[in-house]
Amino acid sequence: MGPLEYQAERWRRIKAHQECDDQLMEIKKFLKGDLDSFFSWPDTQDF
């Protein structure tokens, strides 16, 4: 395995790990501009 293949495999493993982490997925959504999950207020009927 050459350096390019090694680097590609490393990034693939990092990406797979990040997709399993809920906190990292929330940060990823925020950075992509998906702000609905951050600014959603609970319904007042639930209180």
Summarize the structure.
This protein is mainly alpha-helical and 47 residues long. It has helices spanning 3-20, 22-31.
Question: Which helices and strands appear, and what pairs or packs with what?
Answer:
Layout: H1 3-20, H2 22-31
List the defining traits of the structure above.
single chain; 47 residues; mainly alpha
Word description of this protein:
There is one protein chain. The chain has one domain. The chain has helices at residues 3-20, 22-31. The model has no long low-confidence stretch (mean pLDDT 83). 60% of the residues lie in helices and 0% in strands. The longest helix is centred in the N-terminal third of the chain and has 18 residues, at 3-20. The protein has 47 residues and is mainly alpha-helical. The N and C termini lie far apart (59 Å).
